[in-house]
Structure formats: C-alpha cells, structure tokens
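Revision sheet: structure tokens.
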Amino acid sequence: MRKRIGILFGGPSGEHEVSIQSAINIHRALDPEKYEKILIGMDLQGAWRIASPEHPLLIGEDGSDALAETAAGAAKPSGAAVSPDGLRINPAAPVVIPEAGSGRVILVDLATAAPRQEIHVFFPIAHGTFGEDGCLQGLLKLLGAPFVGAGVLGSAAGMDKDVMKRLMRDAGIPIPRFVVVRSRERDQISFDVLSKTLGTPLFVKPCNLGSSVGIHKITDAESFDAALADAFRYDLKVIIEEGIRGREIECSVLGNDSPQASAPGEIIVHADFYSYYAKYIDPDGAALEIPARLDKIKTQEIRDLAVRAFEALDCQGMARVDFFLKEDGAVLVNELNTLPGFTRISMYPKMWEASGLPYGKLLDRLIELALERHEAESRLKRTYGD
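Predicted:
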C-alpha cells in the first residue's frame, strides 16, 4: 500500500512564500508509485487547508489552479524569485483539523466534520516561525504522527540563534563572537560599545527567523538604531554578530543516530551580503558552487563539524549547517537550519545530489528516517509501572 504523505507548508511566517516553493518541488518529486501526496497549506492565520473538487489549494494571481499548471509543467520551477507566479493559498479551500485516534491521524473537514484524508507521514516544510521552531513538531508529536525532520528540542534550538550558538560554544564548536539583546535591554546597548567589542561590520538579526529576513549589515552608528528597530519587529530577542571576512560554505546532514554529512558547497555572494533579496529575488545575487573547491583535509573538517553541530543541537532527519571559512583557514559555524529550503535549486538537496543521492531518493530516505524514529519512540514507556 502506498504511504500517504502530508506535505505541510506555509503558515504565519516571514518565510511563507519560500515554503510554498519548497512544497511544490517536494510534491512534484515524490514517486507516485510509492506515495499518495496530500498538500496541506497553512494560511497566514495558521488554518490548515486542503484542495477540494470545487476549490484548488494553490492559486495564481488570476485565481487559476496553480498546482495543476505546475503538475502539467506550465509553471516554471522556482528560480530567481520565491513566488514567480504570485502563488498563494486559496482562502476558499476547505479548512481541516488533524484528529488522532487508534494510531491514526485523519484530517477532518472543519465545516462538515467529515473525515477527508488519513495521513501516514507528515513532511513539514513550513520554514520559519511556528513551522520550524518546534511548535508544529510539538503538535505532530502530540498527535502521535511520524514526521520528517528534527523533533521539538532540535527544532527550537536550531531556530533560536542565541540558544543555538550557546549550545555549540559549550560543545567546543568554533563560532563567531556575538551579543544578544532582549527587548527590555534595547536602550542599554550602543553601536560604539558593540563595535569596540566585536569590530565592524556588525550583523543585526532577529534570533528566531530565517531566510535572511530582518537582517542588516551595519558599519556606523547612524544605521544601527534603525536596524535594531527592524529586527525587533520580528522577535523579542536580537543577536548581533561580528562580521567575518571569508568564504561562505554550507554542508548538508542526514540521519538520526548515525548522521552523515554531504560534500560541502559554496555560496559565492555577488551582493554586499547574502540577504533575502540576494537569495530569492536577484538572479545575479549569488552563485552556487557544488562541491566547493576545498582540499580533502578542509572538506573533512567541515563535514565533521557539521555532524558535531547536528548532534550538539539534538537534531534528527536533516539539517543544513552554514560555515565561514576565514582567510587564515579557520572554520567557524555560523548557524544550523533544521528545515532548509527544498526547491530544486536549494543547497540542501543539491549538495546531496553532488554526493550521489538524487532529490527523489533523498526524499525517500527522509521518510524512512521519520518512520524509524517514530517506531523507536513508540517503544518507549510513557507511564510508570508495568
């Protein structure tokens, strides 16, 4: 029997549009001989929606069924822009809620209370807030559902750049210097003090966000206050990091108890820094080189550090680990992403493809890992006594 895979995407996040593209690519690549694929779009208010005969799930700017066009090959794959066709979740698509019972998870139509679909494995690809930070993973664990990717702890730690960096530092993993500012402390911090401590440029980031949303490169006091104010629009904690001069290297990790690292890749940034615009909108913002031009010793050092970071944050399934390779040869871990971009041009699948694991087989392995972990956890005792 084919496994029914629920691809969860979207959600009330600054990375909503990126998530749509990841979901479309996964939907397209999953082998229909092995899987029945159900797209579950979380709208900007957090409601779960699925397609119905009357209402498609994803629509274009003109209200047409964008998913049908994509399946037919009319829509272009995700490339320079995150949402080239103006795709959005249809507000008229039925709202469903997950209902657990007897070891099954069924999507129930909220309007009619009728069962719609049973989901065997969830594939959450809701990047950013509420999808990548442990909230969604906690719900899926409460439902008793197998799901792809890190659990609650790994997801939360991987999302919070403050907690992430402290865990890595305690594990002896080299990282850039940083300072964390909470909202109550924002008037107590100054550019002059920070620049003396960390040097310039400085990078100001919301602690709990990804895809370079809300990130600013700062070289003077005049722009610091505006950058801090913008970062605090997205989070109650802001991290301020030293600027590192060097190459930007990434590495994919895959596995549960015995994780493995891919061949590293390099992002060659043509813009001032790897911003949201350079990542997703500007076709000339950056170039990818996979595998990265590194000698065998440096390649192995980066792969080993990627696995160490993955384990330090108690991750499972997958993660992309981002590095700085300094001019003096020192390697620093910048951050770890537990739900990396999953389009055909995204670094995570492309690095595995360069390592001999093509996109479709990678999806197969991630689903296998989800089921393996769920089976192992289901054997744990949850009550005291016999």
